[in-house]
Amino acid sequence: MKKNYIIYSVLFLAAAVAFSGCTGLKKMKKKQGLITYQQTPNPLEMHGDSVVLNVTGNFPPKYYKKKVTCEITPVFKNINGQEIPFKTIKVQGEKVQDNNPVIKTLDGGKFNYSAKVAYTPDMRIGDVNIKIHAFVKSKFVDFDPVTIGKGTIATPGLLEKDAKPILAKDNFVRIFPEQKEASILYTINQANVRPQELTKAEMKELKKYLEATKQNARKEIKGVNISSYASPDGPEDLNTKLSDNRGTSANSTIKEQFKKYEKAKEQGFFNTKATPEDWEGFQKLMSESDIADKDLVLRVLSMYSDPIQREKEIKNISKAFTQIADKVLPKLRRSQIKVNVDSIGRSDEEIIKTFDSLPSALS
Tell me, what's the pLDDT at 186? Predict the structure, then answer.
C-alpha cells in the first residue's frame, strides 16, 4: 500500500511539472540572453541605393522547446525612435508541423539571415535590433528587443553629383492623427459587457464622436485598437481565458458602431490584443493610489519578477491587499478601446485658392 502511494505521488508530481511548463514560452523569454547574434557588416554599409543585412543567430543546446515557433524580425531603430523593419523569418521546434528551419532541443541550432532594404537618410544613425515573437498555437510571448549592431556607413550618399538648392524644412502638416478612447470595465471573473457600461458618459462620447467623424469629409477613421486585460490576481490560465474573452466581447460591442462603415470590413481594421496579467497597469495605479502600504507593495514588485511570487507576497500584506482588492484591481479588469483617426487638411489646390481669396484663413 505504501509503495503504491509513493508511485502515485511521483506520477502526480511529474504531471504537475509537465503541465506548468507545457509550452516553455516564459522560460525561453527568461533565458533569451543565451541566444547569440552576429551582424555583418557591423556597422551596416550603403552600397548603391541599398543596405544589406546579414545575421547569424545561435540557439544553445537544451534551450529551444519542441512545440515553439519563433518569428524573427531585425529592425533598424534610428536616432529619432523610428523603426524600419526588415523581412521576418521563422524557425521552429522539432514537433511543429511546418516547413521552417528546425532548431533541435537537445543540440540547439542556428539560423542564417540575409535581407536588403532601400537606403534612406533616416538610417544614418541608429541601432539594429532583433525582435522575436514566439508562439505555440494561440499562446505567445514577445521577447525583449536585443541590439546587435550599428548603422549605417553611407559615404556614397554624401557625394552630390549635381548642385541642388537647399530648402529649409517648414512646419506644414497636412494630416493630423487623432485618437478617441473609452474603456469597458468588467466584474471579477466575468467577460460579459454589462448594460451600464454602454450608457456611461465616456461610451456616449465615443459614439457621438464616431457619428460626427463619419459625416466629416476631412476625417478618416484608420482603425480600432482593442486592448483587453485581467487583473494580476488569480491563476494565470484563468486570467488568460478572461482577457481573451473580454477582447471578444469588446470587439463585438464596438463593431456594432461600424455596421455601415465600408472601411471597417477591411482586414486589420479591428486589432485586438489581450494581456492576461496587467502588472504594468497595477504598478501605475499603485503609484497613484493613497494606500498606506503602497511603498511596500511597490518594493515587492521591484524585488520579484515571478508573478506567482509577487501575488503571494502582496497577499501577505493583508491590510494593504484588502484596499487593493477594493480600489485597484477592479480598474484593471477592462477593455481599452482606441479609435485612430486622421484629420486631413487642405489640398495644395485648396491652399492656393484660399490664398487668393482669403489669405487670413491660412494663418
Answer: 96
